[in-house]
Amino acid sequence: QLKEKMKEQSWNILFVERGHGVSMFRTKKTRDLVVRGIPEALRGELWLLFSGAVNDMASNPGYYTELVEKSLGTCTLATDEIERDLRRSLPEHPAFQSDTGISALRRVLTAYAYRNPQIGYCQAMNILTSVLLLYAKEEEAFWLLVAVCERMLPDYFNRRIIGALVDQAVFEELIRVHLPQLTDHMMDMTFFSSVSLSWFLTLFISVLPIESAVNVVDCFFYDGIKAILQLGLAVLEYNMEKLLTCKDDAEAVTVLNRFFDSVTNKDSPLPPAVQQGSNLSDAKSDHPKVDITDLIRESNERYSDIRYEDVESMRCRNRLYVIQTLEATTKQNVLRVVSQDVKFSPNDLDELYELFKKEHFLSCYWNVNSPVLQHHDASLPYLEQYRIDCQQFRVLYHLLSPWSHCANRDSIALWTFRLMDESSHGLINFKQFACVLDTMYNGSFTDKLKLLFKLHIPPAFTEVESLSPSKGVDLSKEELIHFSQLSVSSAGGGLESADLKSSPEKGKGKVDIQAYLKQWQDELLKKEENIKDLPRMNQAQFIQFSKTLYNLFHGDPEEELLYRAIAVVTSLLLKMEEVGRRLQGPTSPVRSPVAIVEMSTESSPKGQEDGSSEQIEGSQAQSSRGNHEWSFAFEQILASLLNEPAFVRFFEKPHDIKARIESAKNLQLKARTRL
């Protein structure tokens, strides 16, 4: 206590000589006093001053109270994680063994998560905030946390901890410069990254006894990240001889842990019951006791040539490397997951991923209000890091799909997107994109036909659903013909923008992590879809399905043969439906559409594909007037088409995706501008 009084007196003299509060000058004497350790009574005040948090708090009176009221009772992923970690925050300290300390910690962390949802909550924030609450009031601790997370340690406290990884790369660079003999011995520099991560994230609080760690925090608020880098180098140099004799990483970690256990603070006024270092038995450590004040002073003296400007320069230099490494890891994880469900070669899948990611970034660049940006959440799994909306999918569909020559390709792109967007968020991930392309390129005849079938029934074909005869709407001949031409008429100029823009408002709330995990679990356990489970296709949907087939066959060498095959299949299906209805109700009058269909089949002149299409369409429309209840199951359509060799040859014809990918690389930006 006497030493504390002497420290306070030294600071009071400094305040008289150099000013107090925001008007105080930073001098060599100030640094010397910080290295000795800030007295307990002044620690909170000086932390606020050195970090600049005092200015933030003065500029926003009542802000913290308002945040606490707004965040009270909210339930998010961040609040769940906060509740889980509350009891793990300095559990040995009496301040956090009661509801008073725990409640204050909860309010500060929850308020910050509410203030900054991009960060929310990250592990290590609870440890740092616990120490802040020991020496500052609740509101002051909140603003100190803001200063650390948003200014002093940028990008540290998020899911990817990019800032911490960048500073670890800076630390490795400093080790090479100042401790070359250690780098020569440690062949793998990743050892230093794995060991020092907790040093940076918790400012040594997690590895040093609390009475020693607070002195490190003093230096951090005064000197910033430079103080942590200097201390890290001093720790490694102090243990140099033992580290050089270590045969593996585990032995080196043990050496460092024993060293940290031996660090004490002989000037600490904390009672022995609170001090962690004094509770350790001497038998636990081979190291002699090391005073934290001496260690910090030595780190300042030996590595005083490290300037903040140099650190910032090294940060910029290493940031790109760290981000590229993270991107490479993300890419490997995504491709590993997706490759299990598709037949594309690794190289083709890699190229598709790059095109998909490029489209994601193009949207972010050209449109700051893009739903991709609005729904971006770094806490999502790797697969969800990059997603595209409907307009972006249309661009890639035009460039990559083997069916992009189809006259109603915009309609097919829209229906395909809706089919994949099961969550109705207006966004799809790379796995969904790759799987649907894989079906188009590598799927069997049945797989491709099933995809086309599903594109023409709800939820993909939503306009049909709203006008479906199953809803009790009786379509006239003119209405049926007009409806069947809706998608094709849009081929020249594309669909209306209102149709192509999937609403980003759907499901805009917070991600329910439990529901998300259950969704992925269900997907892993889901069996192969049974074709008998597919709903039946009603008359309007079948007409549009036939029109899509006509458009797909345009330009094919067997175009005329395929057109005739469609007429034959349509006639056969209508006959089957007519027979089925007569068997179900033999006394009910049924107007037969078959004669009209047969006439269209026989009278279709060679090379007159438009006439053939109109005749089939007209026959379907007339049949719908006679009885608007008819519909077809997928098995009926599949069985009928399998009897036509031209159909089978068309859908089993191989397509070269490599050529498509090479073309897409050159045309992606032009295609976006044109669309």
Structure in words:
The protein has 675 residues and is mostly helical. Among the domains are: 37-151, putative rabgap domain of human tbc1 domain family member 14 like domains (Helicase, Ruva Protein, domain 3), CATH 1.10.8; 162-271 and 286-313, Cyclin A, domain 1 (Orthogonal Bundle); 341-465 and 534-578 and 630-674, Orthogonal Bundle (Recoverin, domain 1), CATH 1.10.238. The protein has 36 helices and 6 strands. The strands form 3 sheets. It has a two-stranded parallel sheet with strand order 1-2. Helix 4 (53-59) crosses helix 9 (138-152). The longest helix has 32 residues, at 308-339. The N and C termini lie far apart (75 Å). The model is unreliable at 278-285, 463-511 and 587-628 (pLDDT under 50).
Spans of at least 5 consecutive residues with low confidence: 278-285, 463-511, 587-628
**What portion of residues is helical?**
55-70%
Q: Which of globular, elongated, flat, extended, rod-shaped describes the shape?
A: elongated
User: What structural category arises from helix and sheet content?
Assistant: mainly alpha
Distance between the termini: 75 Å
Largest sheet: 2 strands, parallel
User: Count the strands?
Assistant: 6
The total of helices stands at 36
Biggest sheet: strands side by side, in what order? 1-2
The average pLDDT score comes to 79
CATH topology of the domain at 341-465 and 534-578 and 630-674: Recoverin, domain 1
Q: What integer value in Å does the Rg equal?
A: 35 Å
Give the second-level CATH assignment, the architecture of the domain at 341-465 and 534-578 and 630-674. Orthogonal Bundle
Please report which band the strand proportion falls in: under 5%, 5-15%, 15-25%, 25-35%, 35-45% or over 45%.
Answer: under 5%
Which CATH first-tier class of the domain at 341-465 and 534-578 and 630-674 would you pick? Mainly Alpha
Q: Looking at this structure, what is the CATH superfamily of the domain at 341-465 and 534-578 and 630-674?
A: EF-hand
Function: Involved in vesicular recycling, probably as a RAB11B GTPase-activating protein.
Biased composition (Polar residues): 613-624
Protein name: TBC8B protein
Region (Disordered): 267-287, 583-624
